[in-house]
Specification:
Length: about 220
Amino acid sequence: MSIKLNNISKKFEKKAIIENLTLTLEDKKTACFFGPSGCGKTTLLNIISGLLKAESGSIEGVDFKKISMVFQEDRLLPWFNVEKNILYANPKADVDLLLGELALGDIKNMMPDEISGGMKRRVALARALAKNADIYAFDEVVKGLDFTTKKQIIEVINQYTNGKTVLLITHDIEEAVLLSDKIYCFSSSPLKIEKEIEIKEEKNNRNEATIEKYKKEITTN
């Protein structure tokens, strides 16, 4: 079932962040929220995920669904090592496999404060992917990674989320094009959909040429 947002509105300190937004996000597809910082993308994602309550409007298609998230912050549990952080999401997860696929190597016994920021980001992703969810919500999931590593991580994300609904927030055009089925370009004050861009190429056939093909369309007002 698709996720349907009906006239969603949200204010912070009397400022309208989202106002009467109506949007349908296709089931088992990856939707990307692309737009400037502060335009309301994370607020929208948190409303869909049930972490924030909209002041008005309704959402269909998320009730009783299992949602797995990667937040803007890594939110690793500092009292658990890497392995236990991942197993916290799914006690049956193959930690060694996940770490290997995400180019993390043998760090499962290390504590979060013993690994780099980029590693923490990928451990947070491993924890999210370990959970067999219906909906995956990723907020800037591959930020700070070089293109080669980013492409490897994106291939893993596509593998684990195939046939699932994915909601993605990013400022990164490469990430948006390589992961998404549809990109929603937003403006702010309050959040508004400026355009929708469908990425038609098969995910496993996308490359730097694909990114260049859509770059101008995404960035041009």
